[in-house]
Amino acid sequence: MTQDTNPDMEAVGRRIRMLRELADMTQESFAREVNRSQPAVSQWEKGRKMPDANTQFRVADVLRVSRSNLFAELVGKS
Question: Which of 18, 20, 50, 65 has the maximal Cβ count within 10 Å?
Answer without folding.
Answer: 20
